Amino acid sequence: MSSQSIALTDSIYRSFQASKKFTFKDQQTITSLDYDDSGQFLISTSANETIELFDAMKGKPLKTIGSKKYGCHLAKFTHNSKTCIYASTKLDHTIRYLQFKDNSFLRYFKGHTAQVTSLEVSPTHDIFLTSSLDDTIRLWDVRASNQQALRPFKSPGIVSYDPSGLVVCISSLQNSKAQLYDVRSLENDPFQEFSLPVGFQWNKVEFSNDNKYILFSCTNGNHLIFDSFDCDIVAELSGMVAIPPSDFPYTGSASFTPDGKFVFSGNGNGTVSVWDLSNINGKGVTIQPICHLSGDNRPRNLIFNPKYLQFATADEELFFWLPDSV
């Protein structure tokens, strides 16, 4: 059922529950999750150097793809659900363009000389941005092996596109700054810059689909919501218990719902917390969760399905969550 045609009412969001659970043989930490554009498929990467492909609608695994030689992280679908790109975690720092049908590589993207820390595909085109510990941000096109643009940037950096695909947010943990760029002139100066609180740590930045807000998913406390136009803090999402540190990177515990009206986040107490953004009535407000959804795992990674009333969480196990009242 499409999440675009049904409003997330109180009874619906409170009824979400873990409907499918997947336990993996090696009990290895899952480091990233991504849905395809249709919402039918999900991919994950794990520290045991495998990529798992799932049919999210049927709730079943489709394929396990090994990447033992190079490792894997940050797997993202292109706009073709039969292909993905992902970062290497060892040996070299090449980004690989994978075709699921025969596990073949369609292209290699070489240039980074250190670990890739963030990778995002444009919502409108098959171009993507990467950030690396080599202190660069690079723009790529899946049709060409060479980078399309390069920008020096102190690492570790986090990259994110706005819904139009024209604006990118690049943020630096090192100096607690975030900058907005026109992706068509990435090598020019940012058109806006703003600061984050000292000591705040994050590993994911996400624009709401209505382009009203920017979410910074925190790793050591409460999440922050910024106004995407004037870049002021409009809300702190409180009630978080910090998720214990991991030996492996992961891609964030918080996500907007597709309508941009709620935020779901994994919590360090094992629950999934939900905030109603209609409670934002000014700037700098603190919002309490409207509910905590029970779970039996630490939801270190959380991503909301772009088309359906479903979200996924993962740490050493993966869960698909569905509402019980629809």
Protein architecture, described:
- Belongs to the WD repeat SWD2 family.
- This is Anaphase-promoting complex subunit 4 WD40 domain-containing protein.
- One of its GO terms (molecular function) is chromatin binding.
- The model has no long low-confidence stretch (mean pLDDT 92).
- The protein starts with 9 loop residues before the first helix and ends with a strand.
- The strands form 7 sheets. A 5-stranded mixed sheet has the order 18-19-20-21-25, with no helix packed on it. A 4-stranded antiparallel sheet has the order 1-29-28-27, with no helix packed on it. Strands 2-3-4-5 form a 4-stranded antiparallel sheet, with no helix packed on it.
- The chain has 326 residues and is an all-beta fold.
- The protein has one domain: YVTN repeat-like/Quinoprotein amine dehydrogenase (Methylamine Dehydrogenase, Chain H, 7 Propeller).
Task: Briefly summarize what is shown.
The chain is mainly β and 326 residues long. It contains one helix and 29 strands. It has one domain (10-323): Methylamine Dehydrogenase, Chain H.
Question: How would you summarize the topology of this molecule?
Answer:
Layout lengths: L9 H4 L2 E8 L6 E6 L5 E6 L3 E6 L4 E7 L6 E5 L5 E5 L7 E5 L4 E6 L6 E6 L5 E6 L3 E6 L7 E4 L4 E5 L5 E6 L4 E6 L9 E4 L6 E6 L5 E6 L4 E5 L5 E5 L16 E3 L5 E5 L5 E5 L8 E3 L3 E3 L7 E4 L6 E4 L2 E7 L3
Parallel strand pairs: 21-25
Antiparallel strand pairs: 1-29, 2-3, 3-4, 4-5, 6-7, 7-8, 8-9, 10-11, 11-12, 12-13, 14-15, 15-16, 16-17, 18-19, 19-20, 20-21, 22-23, 23-24, 24-26, 27-28, 28-29
Organism: Wickerhamomyces mucosus
Keywords: Nucleus, Repeat, WD repeat
GO molecular function: chromatin binding
